[in-house]
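A favour between colleagues. Tell me how you read the following sequence-structure pair.

===
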Amino acid sequence: MRLVADTNVLIAAIVADGICRDLVRVRLRSHDLITSEILLRELRDKLRVKFDLAADELPLIVALSERAKIVKPTKLTPPICRDADDDWVLATALAGHAELIITGDQDLLALKEHGGIRILAPRAFLELLDLQG
């Protein structure tokens, strides 16, 4: 499956033991990950500012940069999300022809889907994978 993991999911995987860490370390390996430079920059910035972590030294970030397909999103007009910054996640998913976005962001989750791309919380994504067997 082609998917975009939102910044908040990746940060949770790095800083806390739990569902996001399991999802990112184990369950995403068999899927095609899509990201963009703007999302990678946001991830690096938040890790540095909020957690004082040098993102480029973290194995997950190195793997993401090497393994994910990096696409160039175009800005959506008019804005789609209540938080216009979240439109970059949608634009990245659209540019990469993603099937799904995994996020904990309520502004994105409220949409449920956009442009045929499903938007699921990490737990809902894991439940979907378990149903598919």
Remarks:
- The CA atoms of residues 76 and 84 lie 9 Å apart.
